[in-house]
Each structure stands twice: as C-alpha cells, then as structure tokens.
Amino acid sequence: MTNVLDQLRTMTTVVADTGEVAAVKIYKPVDCTTNPSLVLKAMKDPASEALVAREIEAGQKAGMTAESVTEVLTVAIGAELAALVPGRVSTEVDACLSFDTEKSVTRARAIIAEYDRRGVTKGQVLIKLAATWEGVRAAEILQSEGIDCNLTLLFSMAQAVACADAKSYLISPFVGRITDWYKKAEGRDNYAPDEDPGVKSVRGIYDYYKSNGIKTIVMGASFRNSDQIKALAGCDNLTIAPSLLDEMGNDPSNLPRVLSPENSSGVAPIPMDEPTFRWQMNADPMATEKLAEGIRNFDADHQKLIGLIAARM
C-alpha cells in the first residue's frame, strides 16, 4: 500500500524545509528552502563540513569579513543543494533589509550573481524576501528582471493580495506560526484540522488565488504536525521538515485531496495599495506580531551565523 507522502506527491509539490545535504539526499524533494536558521543547522551537518571549511579558508585568503563569508557560504550551500534537486533552491535576503526596497534588490542581485559564478542559473533559484510592503516592492522589481521571488513570513490575506499584485512567483504562508499565536491568544491546546487558524488562512489564500486566476504559487510552510499538512493536500506546494516527511512516509492511511483549482468559490478581487495594506496589517495583531517576530528571529540567527564564522576565522 502506498504511504501518505507518496499520495501527497501526486497532488502537491513537496519541498524539503531544510538546508542539510544529507536530508535532501534521503527525501529527494523537488525543491528545497533555506533561511538563516536552516543554514545554522547545515553548519553542524557533517555532510557540509568540507564545504564550510573550504569557503571559510577561501574567504580568509581573499581578506573577506565574516559577514561577507556568511553571504558567500549561504550561496555555496544553496549551490550544493541545487545539484541535488530538480527544481528550485530558495535563498533569503538578509532580514535586516526587510524595510529597504533598494538594498533588498541590490542584495538579491548579488545572490544571483554569486550563484551564476558557481554555475547555478537564476532559473534554479528563488529569492526569499519578507512580505513587508518594501519586500513586496523589491519582489516586483526583481520579477520584472526575470528573478523569481519567494515571499516569506506571510500571515495575512493583505500580504497575499499584495504579493499577487506584484506578480511574485511564490508565497510561503506560515501555518504553524499562525496556529501558535491563536493557541496562546485563545488558551487552546489544539485545533481540529478544519478549525485550525493556520490551515484556514492558507485555504482562504489558495481559494482567492484560484478564484482570480492568479499564477503565484501558494506554498504552505511552518507545520507543527502532519494533520495540518493533510488538511492542505492539493495545495500547490508544501515545504515540510524532514521529521514530518519521515512520519508521513511511514503512514499507510488514505489521503483525500482537499484543495483543487476546480473547487474555488469565486472570491472577488481585493483592491490593495500601500495605505490599505498598512491598515489591514495594523488591524490584524497576529499578522503584525508574527511578521515582526519572524524578521527579528531570522536576523538573530543571521548574526549568530556571522559570529560562528568569525570564530572559525
């Protein structure tokens, strides 16, 4: 009998939520996604040790700073992953640039140039940007240059609409983090899958996109359990941690399809400009808090990564 993971792959593109080479080799995802937290884990991955040592040594010889080596190392890990997956590798623009459109665009171009230097084409890469208003504007510019973007830290319909209007290639709504916030706010221990606020958020975004013929890929992310994943079976993409991939690979139960373009409800287009975006974000404490927290945490991990590399230099 086929397992849940195999069934999911027939209706959804499965992405590995890891930057560890060994995990990608085992689970063979179509795409893989990285962020500073995942690169930190990759630093401790024995399979990446030779690569890390080589990049640090090269950086020292070139007189680079620890911060510059960190930027190059992130792309080096991404290039190794690109050789293992048939699809895309997401690489994140520094979180500290989340409110600066111009600097985000400059950093994204530098990431693409470094990949190109390593023989990885821009068609194999997604630039990850936080879904702030400024991040969305950066994505709009980059998309016009043929650089595809993954808008991350997405918690609201306002963000999803703005990303669609900017013609972003992909968005990553964060299921588990939404659920975490509501658990704390409502004093709940858990939710049934159909009542889960994170699941309901992604379903709503998916329905809006399919109702309006929007091509932007919806990739559910940040899962806390396999029930959340099963409740989104049929979503365009789902990025899943290795532990949950393993769990679903050992689950022989039947997986019904939940989402499909044919079942969209015909939601009307939502007008979105900067004042509307900022007001709707302000009116949504969950989205505001989780976006700010996510940016802070990614930046903290980025700084930690720089510190680790500085110590090794």
Question: Can you summarize this structure?
Answer:
With 313 residues, the chain is an alpha/beta fold. It has 14 helices and 8 strands.
Structure description:
With 313 residues, this protein is an alpha/beta fold. It has one domain (4-312): Aldolase class I (TIM Barrel, Alpha-Beta Barrel), CATH 3.20.20. The chain has helices at residues 4-9, 21-27, 36-43, 49-61, 66-82, 101-117, 133-144, 157-165, 175-186, 197-211, 226-230, 242-249, 274-282, 285-312, and strands at residues 13-16, 31-33, 89-92, 125-130, 149-154, 170-173, 217-220, 237-240. It has an 8-stranded parallel beta barrel, surrounded by 8 helices. β3 (89-92), α6 (101-117) and β4 form a beta-alpha-beta unit. The protein is globular.
